[in-house]
Amino acid sequence: MKYHQINRDLFIKNRAKFTAQMKPNSVAIFNSNDIYPVSADSSLPFAQHRDIFYLSGVDQEESILLLFPDAPYDHLKQILFLKETNEHIAVWEGEKLTKERAFEVSGIKSVIWLQDFHKTLKEIMAYSDTMYINTNEHYRASIETETREARFVKWWKETYPAHKVEKSNPILQRLRSIKESEELELIQKACDITEKGFRRILQFVKPNVMEYEIEAEFAHEFLRNRSQGFAYTPIIASGNNANVLHYIENNQQCKAGELILLDVGAEYANYSSDMSRTIPVSGRFTDRQKAVYNAVLRVKNEANKMLIPGNNWKQYHVEVGKFMTSELIGLGLLDKADVQNENPEWPAYKKYFMHGTSHHMGLDTHDYGLLHEPMKANMVFTIEPGIYIPKEGFGIRIEDDVVIQEKGDPFNLMRNIPVEVEEIETIMNS
Questions:
Q1: Block means of pLDDT (10 residues each) for the chain, length 430 residues?
Q2: Alpha carbons 183 and 378: distance in angstroms, whole number
Q3: DSSP strand pairing (130-133 vs 26-31)
Q4: CB 46: neighbour CB atoms within 10 A?
Q5: Terminal CA-CA length for the chain
Q6: How many degrees, rounded to 5, is the angle at CA 81 between CA 108 and CA 138?
Q7: Computed from CA positions of residues 322, 327, 333, 334, in that sequence, does the dihedral angle turn out positive or negative?
Q8: C-alpha pair distances (Å), 92 with each of 85, 89, 326
Q9: Dihedral over Cα of 245, 249, 250, 254: its sign
Q10: How many angstroms separate the Cα of 11 from the Cα of each of 8, 374, 385?
Q11: DSSP-derived 3-state class of residue 262
Q12: What is the 3-state secondary structure (H, E, C) of 397-408?
């Protein structure tokens, strides 16, 4: 991996938090992701399943983590199963984790080669009553490919039908949503790399540049700072492309007078950043573009004040909608009649701001977190209001990543990334 090794104490703490919530005499198993084929003998780059990484720090394919806190023998309480490396693998694929190296990364002493997994599991199942299976229950999840985790769950249920079943996901949703200090440092690192990329393109963008050239500038800066690359597929949307919320083609020319909506974030050590900025191709905003931009910025600043412990995510969005409605009236995009006659299920402001304002962020860009539960300190949220005006040929979104504090306003992890009109214009014209 490109990133510096993470202190294993983080993963030791994470496992302790998880096992403390397991039922007596129960086992939990977590599988790594598959390496997905493309065609012939090619495959997609490996990306580790975030749950096994969160609990072990292992960033390698064909790995399994087993937790059995009530095991009768110490060597069965926490086990890493890894594919045994050899000289052939070392030559063709490079270094894989040895048992000693796995302990350094994870803090787990019991490391068993994967070929002995079924034999070991059979012994453990004889001692235990309950299995925690790890299903993906994220509210945005849409899965059409059978995962390694899903294959394991299917096999385990057929092989051990008499055991009780519990779910790991509700525990992980709560644990992963509240970040440890080490995690906040890693997310800050990802945000700092994103800042470097953004400052680079502010001095690169000019009329007639291609969207993919801007994407390439970000990629260059991310990789040279130990990032694996983009935390998610980047959006480089010039002109009316910005009004397609998930525009990812990035293949058009940026023309003089247009705006470019950038929704880009670097990852670092599997942790995400998520930034949106909107900049003028020619280095200066028009008066109308500036008016809309500052309206979005004011909504972002008001939303920021509401990300405090105890607040409810759904009501928060209702309140943000009120601020946005006021700004849209001020811009002449809505009038009072539009608001009076609005459908409560789809308020008038949704014509110009149709997505949510905030989501959890961390190991996943849309990270774990139960949205019906109150906000808590050390949760990381995005704030990303936008106004999209197809008739005027532009859309504007501004997004920062913030950490909820025990008291006061959240801490902005992107506080050093230029966001004011004047600062953006000054850098672009320097």
A1: 95 98 98 93 93 98 97 98 81 81 97 97 97 93 91 96 97 98 98 98 98 98 98 98 96 98 98 98 98 98 98 96 98 96 94 97 97 97 98 98 97 98 97
A2: 10
A3: parallel
A4: 14
A5: 36
A6: 90
A7: positive
A8: 11, 5, 61
A9: negative
A10: 5, 26, 34
A11: strand
A12: ECEEEEECCCCC
The secondary element (H helix, E strand) that includes residue 99 is helix 99-106
Among residues 97, 99, 92, the alpha carbon closest in space to that of 61 is found at 97
Parallel, antiparallel or unpaired: strands 130-133 and 164-167? parallel
Output DSSP code: residue 61. Answer: S
Q: How far apart are CA 241 and CA 248, in angstroms?
A: 9
For 309-340, the DSSP string reads TT--HHHHHHHHHHHHHHHHHHTTS--HHHHH
DSSP string over 130-161: EEEE-----TT----SPPHHHHHHHHHHHH-T
Q: Identify the three-state secondary structure at position 290.
A: helix
Phi, psi of 240 (to 5 degrees): -70, -15
Q: Where are the alpha helices (DSSP H) in 203-286?
A: 211-223
Tokens 């998880």 belong to residue:
18
pTM comes to: 0.96
3-state secondary structure of 400: strand
Sort 395 into a burial class: Cβ within 10 Å, 0-12 / 13-18 / 19+.
Answer: buried
CA dist., res. 126 & res. 251, Å (int): 58
Main-chain phi, psi angles of 326, to 5 degrees:
-60, -40
Strand segments (E) across 105-258: 110-113, 130-133, 164-167, 235-238
The Cα–Cα gap between 240 and 261 comes to 10
Distance CA 153, CA 229 (A): 32
